[in-house]
């Protein structure tokens, strides 16, 4: 069973204490949609920086396949599911992030444009902690399971399933959809993706209760 945390400060200290010496630390932070990954990753970076370490976030979302490709493959309605990411590209970048001391240019996902932008962010060469965050980092199926051993430390976000459903519907309401439309969108794609994460991910060392 993973060790539970409910304090960002305590988890930050754990990351520091367990970091390998002499090289960059790659942290995997995973959980279902609406579990709070971006919030936790940002707060961990702030905590690390406040303690004198250099750190940044590496979101998996930058590896979304373009809508034109998803449309051809019949996957546009399932955008955000495992099949709609360039997972091999993500694996290759994580290997570089762990092994190189050079600057790394990484893709980002622009939600306003609904597409990925190549080389949209920089991981400076002196970055000590890279917090990689995404839904499927610990997924126990090919080729996603190649990610697991790349991380020096692993944190899973846990959240009550009913809470996730409420948050996912609320996301679509905030985008101007009606209650019926928001519920349909959440149930047709977001909820199945959340179940995939919760039911098919490997157990990790630490979890954060969101």
Which key phrases capture this entry?
alpha/beta, Rossmann fold, six-stranded parallel beta sheet, two-stranded antiparallel ribbon, 8 strands
Q: How large is the share of residues in beta strands?
A: 15-25%
> Mean pLDDT, nearest integer?
95
Broad shape: globular
Indicate the low-confidence ranges by residue numbers. Answer: none
CATH superfamily name? P-loop containing nucleotide triphosphate hydrolases
Element-by-element helix/strand order:
EHEHEHHEEEEHHE
Q: Provide a count of the helices.
A: 6
Oligomer: single chain
Q: Which structural class best describes the helix and strand composition?
A: alpha/beta
Strand order of the biggest β-sheet: 1-8-7-2-6-3
Largest sheet: 6 strands, parallel
Q: Count structural domains.
A: 1
How many strand segments? 8
Named CATH architecture: 3-Layer(aba) Sandwich
Structural Rg: 17 Å
């Amino acid at each position: 069973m993973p060790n539970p945390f409910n304090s960002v400060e305590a988890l930050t200290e754990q990351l520091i204490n367990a970091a390998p010496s002499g090289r960059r630390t790659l942290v995997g932070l995973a959980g279902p949609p609406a579990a709070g990954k971006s919030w936790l990753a940002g707060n961990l970076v702030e905590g690390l920086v406040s303690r004198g370490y250099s750190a940044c976030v590496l979101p998996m979302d930058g590896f979304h396949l373009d809508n034109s490709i998803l449309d051809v493959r019949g996957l546009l309605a399932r955008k955000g599911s495992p099949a709609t990411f360039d997972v091999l590209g993500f694996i290759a970048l994580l290997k570089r992030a762990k092994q190189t001391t050079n600057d790394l240019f990484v893709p980002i996902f622009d939600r306003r444009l609904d597409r990925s932008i190549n080389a949209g962010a920089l991981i400076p060469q002196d970055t000590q902690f890279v917090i990689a965050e995404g839904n499927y980092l610990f997924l126990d199926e090919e080729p996603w399971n190649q990610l697991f051993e790349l991380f020096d430390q692993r944190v899973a976000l846990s959240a009550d399933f009913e809470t996730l459903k409420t948050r996912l519907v609320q996301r679509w309401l905030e985008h101007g959809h009606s209650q019926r439309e928001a519920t349909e969108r959440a149930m047709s794609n977001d909820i199945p993706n959340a179940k995939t994460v919760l039911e098919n991910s490997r157990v990790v060392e630490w979890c954060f209760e969101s």
